[in-house]
Amino acid sequence: GAGWLRQVSVCSGRAIKNVVRNPATSIGQIAVNVVVGVIVGCIYFRLDNNTDDYQRALRDRTGCIFFCIINFMFGNLGGIEMFLQERLIFMHEKAS
User: Rounded distance, CA 50 to CA 17, Å?
Assistant: First the structure.
């Protein structure tokens, strides 16, 4: 079978070809990430470093981290769509 590096290079080449074939998807993802970044930045701009209310400052930062992680998780759903579209190719290559 093909080595790990060869598999990664083939899959990366396919991903690059998909980006070149459909640049609107990449531009859309960039736009969504910029908008979400601006929204998160506006919400959490100038968080207090007030040590008197440590619990509140911790909750604020935890909320920001949670929001960013959820955004990252749902942002990667496009990769699942690509895999589902190319599933037949993967199955064919695995069989041969």
Answer: 50
User: In terms of DSSP H, where are the helices of the chain?
Assistant: 4-21, 23-43, 54-75, 77-85, 87-95
**CA–CA distances in Å: residue 5 to residues 8, 33, 82:** 5, 30, 21
How far apart, in whole angstroms, are the C-alpha atoms of residue 36 and residue 30? 10
Q: What confidence tens digit (pLDDT) does each residue in 6-41 have?
A: 888 888 888 888 888 888 878 888 898 899 889 888
Q: What is the model's pTM?
A: 0.58
User: Which residues are CB-contacts of 78 (< 8 A; sequence separation ≥ 6)?
Assistant: 25, 29
